[in-house]
Design a protein that fits this description.
The complex is a heterodimer.
Chain A (H helix, E strand, L loop, with lengths): L1 H20 L8 H5 L18 E3 L7 E6 L4 E4 L3 H28 L3 H4 L4 H10 L1 H14 L1 H19 L8 H6 L8 H16 L4 H11 L1 H7 L64 E7 L10 E9 L1 E2 L4 E7 L2 E7 L8 E4 L2 E7 L5 E5 L9 E4 L2 E4 L1 E7 L7 E7 L23 E5 L7 H9 L4 H8 L7 E7 L4 E6 L14 E2 L18 E3 L5 E4 L21 H12 L5 H8 L5 H14 L6 H11 L11 H17 L15 H10 L17 H20 L8 H5 L1 E5 L8 E4 L15 E10 L5 E5 L17 H5 L4 E2 L13 E8 L3
Parallel strand pairs in A: 1-27, 3-7, 6-22, 11-19
Antiparallel strand pairs in A: 2-3, 2-27, 4-5, 4-21, 5-24, 7-8, 8-9, 9-10, 10-17, 11-16, 12-13, 14-15, 17-18, 18-20, 22-23, 24-25, 25-26
Helix pairs in contact in A: 3-7, 3-9, 6-9, 10-11, 12-13, 16-19, 18-20
Chain B lengths: L1 H16 L5 H12 L4 H38 L8 H26 L10
Helix pairs in contact in B: 1-2, 1-3, 2-3, 2-4, 3-4
The chains are: A alpha+beta, B mainly alpha.
């Protein structure tokens, strides 16, 4: 009896030990996590202590880090090597877990942390070749002695930090997810750049457009997705002279056609979706967009240019950016950086400022492949059989068996999905097609940023950006010498007009990319007469530009609104520009709503519809969180869009690809009897009036169903419910239900999960001054008071004035502490 | 009470010196196997020593700047207040200490040996 009791109680104790010492599914190892001496209790405010002295092996001289009261590090070093080593250490001290999680995610290794649940995501990222792309680029980065030194020093700094971490000081997410940091590598820096290429330069609708062409005919597709769409004001102002000839053969003529834009955020109808465990959105989402502009000195009060930038990315905690100043002989630069990459990505120095919006040109194509047989060892190309290559991918899985995947490559690139496999949620991948993607090619964007950080003039920037291949960006520039400029910058394949809009023939050499647009020929404009330059992800240039670069750009609204404000602006001050970042005027609503209300006049059935009608009638077209009208307009527009386009689908098409908003705006204003308004499922012929009324009825019905009778629960801020999800979707570690002004297609592009990720206003001059804010905080430690300390200022549109020091000894009222770093003897 | 205090201090020392949470189980087991005069006594001492240690330590770290992180953790567990993380921490430790202490006593009892000391 006693023996039985002993055995049972021992087993019970063992079971309790096992239960508390191990993670179960997503449930953490409670014993280790709750242990006050090593668990989460150790991740309190001590993470905010500023170390006074540090010994960091590898440093050659003393490095001084000055911390300001927003916890921004200002790093002063005696050499490039020490500068980037210190940056690596500082970045890791603020964001180590985020850095590693993003690298593992991109490399298709997140199953090692998450478990079997993440295997499909890893397979997708491996098939897409993100790690392969990073390896290709890393080789190039290592060939350049400057970038090699920067990367190696940065890596040494991160690893010095990892080595000094005991179990107690591990970032809390490691404790929750129960893993440990592995040594940092240069490859992880390259991986982050490829993650950004994926986010920004992999958008494509080739499969859906091919189905649409086959079902509707090319003429209809060209009408709905014109190469030069109405209402869109290209980045390069019309009339700009290009001082070069176009290509001799591949790029075609240039009569007007049209583009679609991205669909923007899905409409906010219905109840919020439950958050998924893993942020597939770290890499992509519908809200990618950005604004940037620069105003010439002749239009500013100070007489020097002002540059503005806000880059829209998925909201997350920890934030994607952190602020940093980097100073060493030959460089003193301030701005934001990715935690995983040395240098400052977007920012300014004493002479120049620069900022980004996504370029959106097409650098990704799909090629059908004809394999000789099921072994997939050979494929047809140019009438001959060529050999494929294969890359074996081994996906280690926490709590499961290693998954082995053989990725087949043609000379174009990897085949991402086979016909017998289910679709990937991330992308509409045509089955059996090979992927040709510019980001797979070797490139060295780190060298570009290195030179940009040290640029003194526009000429320096042009030279620096020659090394910027992918993702293609609209890069705005302003210099202390008065120059302003914008470049649609990147490495763009030479194409026939429209080539790559549809899935291409992988056996036909004529469908291959025929080289690259010469760098000297990328669309660019310097000091235009109108006194400003701007971009908002829209079409790069008008028909006068001789190359074809793509067709699927952002719709007209943000770009047109920016130009409208700047065209009238005189005597511009930085305060004006700070205000402009939070401009929420919805010019789509301003364009179509009067017409729609005219059609709906007197049609309201019931109290809810009447109330909505009155709200819209009284609306000033501003997407304010406290107002109800934006909610109603969003839903009305979504329903009108759906009712207009979804019935156009024919044959084998899946969902009808949505034309850009400007196409529908144009039809509403100029062609209310258009055949596209006709509902093909009814025998009658409808026009805009009937469709608008139906859309109105459905929209109001949807809103009542989701939010009850019209009232405070319909307020735009509430319905939108902006949230900053934690990167690994750990409940309680993000921020939910923020009520913030803005919408995806207004300048202040705050959506539910996508928003301006860094707003910056830089006033050039003898003393450069700048303001900035981002949704998050400098520290990635959830127990830090700097974890989300910038969110309120960001949401309210109140940026902080940025501290930019000339030397480590410069006194400044906003400094909070200093760290002196020395190498080991 | 003295047994609880002694166990607690031994646990504290071992936890401060090494990064392992399971000392609370080992020490409770050792007490049960070597000292406790009954199963109930072993259970209670293990529960009390481990629970009080983690209660006190949790409270200390909560007050010493741990409110934000405890708040986030409470959010993760679906609890309403950072303060609740303190009793949760103590309960988990108490449970672990208690079953370990009882197991220690039961093993000794099965081997037919008597305790080397007496519970005051």
């Amino acid at each position: 009896m006693k023996t039985v009791r002993a055995v049972v109680s021992l087993l019970l104790a063992g079971l309790v030990f096992w239960a508390l010492d191990n993670r179960h599914g997503t449930f953490p190892a409670l014993g280790r996590l709750l242990d006050p001496f090593t668990g989460f209790w150790q991740n309190g405010s001590r993470v905010d202590r500023i170390p006074r002295k540090l010994v960091i092996p590898g440093l050659r001289d003393e490095v001084r880090v000055v911390w300001d009261d927003r916890r921004v590090p200002h790093i002063f070093a005696g050499s490039d090597h020490d500068l980037y080593l210190a940056q690596g250490w500082v970045a890791a001290s603020l964001r180590l877990w985020q850095m590693e999680f993003q690298a593992l995610y991109t490399a298709g290794r997140i199953s090692e942390v998450v478990g079997p649940l993440a295997v499909p995501q890893d397979i997708f990222n491996r098939r897409f070749g993100l790690a392969w792309a990073a390896e290709n680029s890393l080789r190039t980065m290592r060939e350049d002695p400057r970038t090699r030194e920067a990367l190696e020093a940065f890596t040494a700094g991160v690893n010095a930090y990892i080595r000094c971490l005991g179990r107690r000081r591990l970032p809390v997410e490691y404790k929750i997810l129960d893993h440990r940091p592995e040594p940092w590598t240069d490859l992880k820096c390259a991986l982050l750049l490829k993650a950004m290429s994926y986010t920004l330069a992999s958008g494509n609708r080739d499969a859906a457009m091919t189905a649409a062409r086959d079902a509707l005919g090319e003429a209809t597709v060209d009408r709905l997705f014109p190469f030069f769409p109405p209402l869109v004001e290209p980045v390069i102002p019309p009339g700009t002279a290009f001082e070069f000839e176009g290509p001799a053969s591949p790029a075609g003529g240039s009569e007007a056609g049209g583009t679609g834009g991205t669909d923007g955020e899905p409409p906010a109808s219905g109840l919020p979706k439950p958050p998924d465990l893993l942020s597939s959105g770290f890499l992509r989402g519908p809200g990618v967009g950005s604004n940037n502009w620069a105003v010439a000195g002749k239009r500013t009060r100070g007489g020097f240019p002002i540059l503005c930038n806000d880059m829209h990315l998925e909201l997350a905690l920890p934030a994607i950016w952190y602020e940093v100043q980097l100073a060493a002989p030959g460089v003193n630069v301030r701005g934001v950086a990715f935690p995983s990459v040395p240098q400052v990505v977007a920012g300014y120095n004493e002479n120049v400022a620069w900022g980004f919006t996504n370029g959106g040109s097409d650098v990704l194509d799909w090629y059908t492949v004809t394999f000789k047989d099921d072994t997939r060892a050979e494929y047809l190309y140019g009438g001959q059989w060529r050999k494929t290559t294969a890359r074996e991918e081994r996906i280690a899985v926490r709590g499961g068996r290693t998954v082995v995947d053989r990725v087949v490559h043609t000379h174009h690139g990897p085949v991402v999905r086979w016909a017998d496999e289910p679709p990937f949620p991330d992308m509409d991948v045509p089955a059996g097609a090979a992927l040709r993607w510019a980001a797979h090619d070797p490139s060295n964007e780190i060298a570009s940023i290195y030179a940009l950080n040290r640029a003194r003039s526009y000429e320096d920037c042009v030279e620096a950006l020659g090394m910027w291949d992918c993702p293609g960006q609209n890069i705005v520039f302003a210099g202390r010498d008065g120059t302003i400029a914008i470049r649609h910058n990147g490495k763009f394949p030479l194409r026939r007009k429209g080539q790559g809009r549809y899935v291409l023939d992988g056996s036909d050499p004529a469908d291959d990319w025929q080289g690259w647009v010469p760098y000297e020929h990328v669309p660019a404009v310097k000091d235009p007469d109108r006194g400003f330059v701007s971009s908002a992800n829209q079409l790069y240039a008008g028909p006068e530009y001789p190359y074809y670069l793509g067709w699927d750009y952002a719709p007209f609204e943000r770009g047109a609104r920016i130009n409208e404000i700047l065209a009238k602006a005189r005597d511009v001050t930085p305060e004006d520009m700070v205000r402009m970042h939070t401009d929420v005027l919805d010019i789509r609503a301003r364009a179509v709503l009067p017409r729609l209300l005219e059609l709906l006049e007197g049609k309201a059935a019931g109290g809810a519809e009447e109330k909505c009608f009155e709200e819209l009638q009284a609306w000033n077209f501003e997407a304010r969180a406290a107002s109800m009208a934006p909610t109603v307009f969003r839903e009305l527009w979504a329903e009108l869009d759906r009712a207009t386009w979804s019935d156009e689908k024919k044959g084998d098409m899946g969902r009808m690809p949505r034309p850009a908003s400007e196409i529908l705006v144009d039809l509403v204003l100029n062609d209310p009897g258009s055949e596209f308004f006709d509902d093909r499922s009814t025998p009658e012929r409808e026009a805009l009036a009937e469709i608008a009324e139906r859309a109105w009825r459905t929209a109001v019905g949807n809103l009542e169903k989701s939010w009850g009778p019209p009232g405070p629960s319909w307020k735009w801020g509430k319905v939108k419910g902006t949230r900053l999800g934690h990167l690994a979707r750990i409940p309680g570690f993000g921020l939910e239900g923020l009520e913030v002004d803005g919408a995806g297609h207004v300048i202040n592009a705050v959506e539910r999960a996508w928003a301006p990720s860094w707003r910056m206003v830089v006033a050039l001059g003898p003393e450069v001054r700048a303001w900035g804010s981002y949704p998050g905080g400098q520290s990635g430690h959830p127990g830090s008071r700097f974890y989300d300390s910038f969110v309120d200022g960001w949401a309210a549109g109140r940026p902080a004035e940025i501290v930019f020091l000339k030397s480590a000894d410069e006194p400044h009222p906003a400094l909070a502490g200093r760290t002196v770093m020395r190498g080991a003897r | 009470m003295i047994a609880v205090a002694v166990c607690l201090l031994v646990m504290l020392a071992l936890q401060v010196l090494t990064p392992f949470w399971w000392w609370i189980m080992i020490v409770a087991f050792a007490h049960g196997a070597a000292v406790a005069k009954s199963g109930r006594n072993a259970f209670r001492t293990g529960f009390g020593a481990a629970g009080l240690l983690w209660l006190g330590a949790g409270l200390y770290f909560l007050l010493a700047g741990g409110r934000p992180i405890a708040g986030r953790m409470a959010g993760m567990f679906g609890l309403g207040s950072p303060w609740l993380m303190v009793p949760v921490t103590a309960l988990v430790a108490g449970l672990a200490g208690a079953v370990a202490g009882y197991a220690g006593y039961a093993v000794r009892d099965a081997l037919g040996k008597r305790g080397s000391g007496r519970e005051p």
